[in-house]
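Notes taken during the Thursday session

The instructor put the following on the board and asked us to keep it in front of us for the whole hour. The protein is BnaC04g56580D protein. We were told not to look anything up and to reason only from what is written here. First, the residues (461 in total):
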Amino acid sequence: MAMKRNGKSPVSSDTDEKFMFFKDVSLGPHETQLRFRLIHFWEARNPVKKTIIGLEMLLIDEQGTVIQGFIPPGRIKKYLPDLKQGSVYRLNNFYGSKNKPMYRVADHIATVSFTWNSELSVLHEIPTCFDEDRFRFHSYEDFEANCDIKGDLYDVVGHMKLVNGHTLIERPTPDEVKIDTTRHIMVHVQSHDGPVMKLYLWDQAAADFCKKFNSYDNTPTLLLVTAVNTKRLGGTLALTSMSPSRIISTGSAQTRRLLIKQVSADVVTKPWYYIGCSGCHAKATKGATSLVCTNTKCEKINTAGVPQYRAKISVYDNSDQAVFVLLGDAGRVLTGRHASELVSSYFEANGSEGADHLVPVPEALISTIGQTHKFCVKVTQHNFSGDTRAITVTKILSLDTPSPTEASVGNDIAAMSEGATQSGDAVCEPHKGGGVTADEESKRACSSADPETAKRPRCEN
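Then, after some discussion, the predicted structure tokens were revealed:
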């Protein structure tokens, strides 16, 4: 078989057809065959003149490699009638042009560009299996690093918190007629490893979101959007849809599976509870024959282990976001159930699991997503330094509880300070006695377990 001038040799299939895999596509002309599934295609327009630059495509081959495709404006009419999302094609002859550095949707260095002698045909009898899609999920840190540089467009999957400012507790109904006028819809979404982000869906993406969201009988809570751009709006990281963006689904089983794949490792490494001493609630560790309380001031020698809350939650108001840690009574007030009760219920329903098995995040905690509460927190210098950077909740109050003024909080703290002990629910410096408390595993915590004896914390809405 003769080598092509680009130095690449086509491979042969079982039927002796000559074709090339995407991983072998290099820059320059190629007189060979490609086989691929068309994931998506969209018009690329000049942002100023609004004229069509060409037709862009996202393609995937049988090895699962994704590459971007491009049809110049003068050749769109020739190929557009045959293009259908999800169909499998054969392409003979193309040019490997350099992948653009701005707003990239694929990692490949090359773009498959249609040329004057390109021949496209539909494969009706598909000889092998082609994946239907391939996603590029990244962490919140990657979104931050990519912010405002107009580089890669990443995909995002997560839980919806607000839709145009409305919570999902009382299902919102996006108005398609209104969105036709405003041209956008704003969704607050949270992926598994980051804070809540504002996601602005524009034009076709907004219309597709409304159509899918309103089509479900039950309120969808999950969202998967592809090719979003990261921008800083008003000093806050935000995501915006672009021309290649797709609303894959809002709450479908596919989205749930993708989200579960992302959060499963996080659930294992960041448990929502710990085993505490039945007396002082400090962390209990395994001894030779029994559990041992790590608090040196605790009088219990052989303690009974009791599951206690230690769950990190992402909270936000109208302008900012923070990470709170729920401990003890605060977790019970939020969920309405003790941590020990939830752990016991899980093992009763899953009797085959061993005692060391980590209980996954319960529905009682998951169902609190989207709720509004008034939190009392204890803020110390440690909250803004070190690795934890989380604020511990000491109380959860009803929304109609009036917020204390700064003067009243100061008076209350002064009155209670004498003889008061630090709360086990407050993030503070380690206890000098050496006891390891509920949040010591997160590097800092206090040693007492009674939140009512602590200095009164300041309240946050």
